[in-house]
Each structure stands twice: as structure tokens, then as C-alpha cells.
Amino acid sequence: MEDIGSIKRRTLLKGMAAATAVSVMGCAGQVATGSRPRVVVVGGGWGGLGAVRALAASGQVDITLIEPNDGFMSCPLSILYIAGFAPASDFQRSYGVVDALGVRRVKDRVLDIDRAGRTVKTATQSIPYDFLVLSTGLEYMEEALPGYAAARDQFPVGFRAFEQSAVQRQAATFLEQGGNFVITVPKPPYRCPPAPYERACLIAQRMKEKGTKGKIILVDANKHPMPPPLAKPMLAAMKEMYGAQIEYISEVDPKSIDAGRKVLATSKGDIPFTHANIILPMRAPGLIRKAGLGERFAAIELPTFQSKKDKNVFVVGDAQGTPLPKSGHIAFGAGQQVGEQILATIAGKYKEAGLGDEVTLPAAICWGKVSTSLAIMINVNASVAVGDPPKIKYQVDPAANAASSKGAMDWGRNMWNAMLG
Ligand SMILES: Cc1cc2nc3c(=O)[nH]c(=O)nc-3n(C[C@H](O)[C@H](O)[C@H](O)COP(=O)(O)OP(=O)(O)OC[C@H]3O[C@@H](n4cnc5c(N)ncnc54)[C@H](O)[C@@H]3O)c2cc1C
After folding, report:
1. What share of residues in the chain are helix, strand, coil (percent, to 5)?
2. pLDDT digits 0-9 by tens, 252-297
3. Is the beta carbon of 65 within 6 A of some atom in ligand 1?
4. 341 CB less than 6 Å from ligand 1?
5. Measuring from atom 7 of ligand 1, which residue has the nearest CA?
6. What is the pTM of this model?
7. Partner of 330 for a Cys bridge, out of 1, 48, 319, 364, CB 3.0 to 4.6 A?
8. Ligand 1 close to Cβ of residue 46 (< 6 A)
9. Same-fold call for 4-137+284-355 versus 151-277
10. Class of 151-277 per CATH?
């Protein structure tokens, strides 16, 4: 398992690669003379905090973080809370460290980006920037499933911070009452591909412990668990550990949901349920499209994470539209990298990667926990030759194991500390 020391070392190397890189940065961020450059970061999640920590360490820029939530909640590992194995507080942190670093924190939601005027707007204020870092995460494509929007409160997705509570309540009711708990899996790209399978496994473990009668029906739009290298060990774990609790159906497209009759209509027929966790397809929030920064996801350049539409705007995390997996580890690393790039640009030290130069991209570690004591590690390394699509290499545990389960918890604590410790 990669430790934070190696994340820092890699980031340094990446920073050096970046320092020998990038003319697309060239005309970014012309800053008014006599004032400190203003960097606005939108979103205090994994990517936003990576940028804030890198920028704040320099003491050279005015940083504003705009985030509507009072604090941070991790999606990674929060299945332990959803399935009833840990309290929510284990996955929550305050923004106290950000405040102590002298970052101006605005508890609000950005509604508009005025790119021509280099200003972001909330309901009550306009905030100017020289550089804008967007790490807004995702929204759900509710229109993909007719019947969903009218009943969204009954079917929380729980793939964004703080939404876990609604899914936890739903899982707790199912575990008490029993029945048919439908969990859907969309086609990629969606946030953390192993997460729906992990959710099914941990709730199934709880079913066994509590003697819950019924089953989890995992309705997968894909041919096998995602990402593809995870399929074999995840299918083996589901079959061997939860053969009586999980019914796995693949290559099924949900067509509509009837909340009143409690029926999910699919390409393979109707599936009646008592409880449902509908994990919808995902896209970047509307703010990104409204600002003309992309369609389903933001269009960015690699390795810089700079918008293809605006050289003063960077998009990191799950809202960006490259083939990189939608992972918190990558989001945090990309945020750090962009923070360092902005500092290098301001210092006049940022240089372009030549066409064909191979540049290392932020790496990812995702965890597919299959029980409280076993997990499958998915390690992702990526690089890009400027002008080409990124090359992405997966390394996946051949089977669920105890070392990766411990590694997951250590990784979580290290990442949360790097963000907010
Ligand atoms: C169940 C689950 C398990 C996961 N496990 C792993 C794992 O093992 N490893 C891993 O690397 N990743 C994992 N992930 C993925 C990880 O959580 C995401 O990739 C990561 O959160 C992406 O970071 P982000 O900054 O793009 O978005 P987020 O962390 O979601 O942050 C976005 C922030 O932007 C704020 N925001 C949104 N819109 C606005 C606006 N208009 N104005 C102001 N603020 C706004 C939101 O409030 C939010 O705080 C998992 C995800 C899930 C759901």
C-alpha cells in the first residue's frame, strides 16, 4: 500500500515534471500588479482540499474556498457506517485546519461562473479570481430513469458526502424487516466503480449476522463487476461469502421505476422490491455546463487539468472528463498538482511538456471491501504523452484478503490527515 510519504514524493516528482512542462499554462493568470494572486477553489472535498493544502503551504496567494457544507465527510470507507459497523463521525472531519491556514472559507454554493469577468457568484456575493480551481464532484442523471425524480427521497443514491445517512436508514430498515433490497449499478463513468459491489457485500455480511430474511438483488448494467480487472475476485467473494444473500444479475438496463408499486422495470423484466438503492448514472454538476466548460464532464487538458475552454480554470476530481478513474486519491493528487502548477506559473517557472513527453499522472488506490476484515485493493497508475490519450494500468489483488482490509483503513486515516489533519 502506498503511504503518504510516497504520495508526497510522487507529487514532488510530478511537480518537477510539471515544472518542465506546459505552455498551455503560458497565458494563464495575468495578475494585477501590486496585489497577491487570488485563487478561488470551489468544493471542499477531495480535489478541492488537495489544491487548498498545496496553495496554503506557499503563503504566496490569497485563497478562498467555497463550500456549502460545514465540514467534510468521506465517501471512501463510509460503507462501514451505512452497514452499521461504525458511527458516521469516524468519516467526518471539521474544516478547522483550513481556517487555521488563513484560507478564507465561504459557506455557500457557487451558482454561476462569469469567465469573462473572472468572478464566481453565489446567491449573495461575487468573488473575483485570477485562477479558478473547480472540484465540485458530481450530480445524478435522474432523467435516465423515468419515475425516479418524483420519488427521489425514497431512493437516496448516497454517493455524495452526507447522503450516506439516508442510505444507512434504508439499510437498517431492510436489515430489520427483510425483503428484497435492489441495488443498481450504472455503466461507467461513475464515482468509484467498486463501490456498489462493496455496498452489497457489507450489507450482506450484516444480513448474515442478524439473520435477516430476504436477499439483495444487484442489478448491474455491466457484463461483470467494474472495473474489469476487479470482476474475478469480486465475483468470487460474492459467490463464496454471500451466495445465499446476493443475487447478481448482469447486463440489465433499468427502464423505469414505479415507487408506488415498488417495481423496477428492466430490459430483463420487472423486479419487485421492498427497498431500493438506485445508483444512477452521473455527470459533472450543471454549473460546469452552464459555464461552457464541457458537456457531460468538463473538457480538460492532460497533464495540466486545465480547462480546454479557459486557461484560468482548472477542473480536478470527478467533474473532469478524462478516462482517469473517478477516485478520491486521484482527485486529491490532481488538486495538489494544480496548486503547485499555479504557484509555479505565478513564479514564472512553469514550462511546457514537449509533444510526446511522458508525464506521470496522479495515481489511485480504490478499495473494494467485501467484509469488515477482507478487501480487494485496486491500484491504478497512469501517465500521458502530451497529445495522446492517457495510459492507465490496473493492479488488482487476485483475491480478497486481510492485509488489504487493514491497508484500506490505514489509507483512509492517512488521506483524511493529509486533507484536514
Ligand atoms: C461509496 C464510495 C466509496 C469510494 N471509495 C473510494 C476509494 O476507496 N478510493 C478512492 O480513491 N476514492 C473512492 N471514492 C471516490 C471519491 O469519493 C471521489 O472520487 C472523490 O470524492 C472525488 O472528489 P471531488 O473533489 O471531485 O468531489 P467531492 O469529494 O464530492 O467534493 C465536491 C465538493 O464540492 C462541493 N460543491 C458541489 N457543488 C458546489 C458548488 N456549486 N459550489 C460550492 N461547492 C460545491 C460539494 O459540497 C462537495 O463538498 C468512493 C466514492 C464512493 C461514493
Report:
1. 35, 25, 40
2. 999 999 999 999 999 999 999 999 999 999 999 999 999 999 999 9
3. no
4. no
5. 366
6. 0.94
7. 364
8. yes
9. yes
10. alpha beta
Which residues face 384 on adjacent strands?
359
The residue ranges of every structural domain in the chain are 4-137+284-355, 151-277
With a 6 Å cutoff on the Cβ, whether 328 touches ligand 1 is yes
Class of domain 4-137+284-355: alpha beta
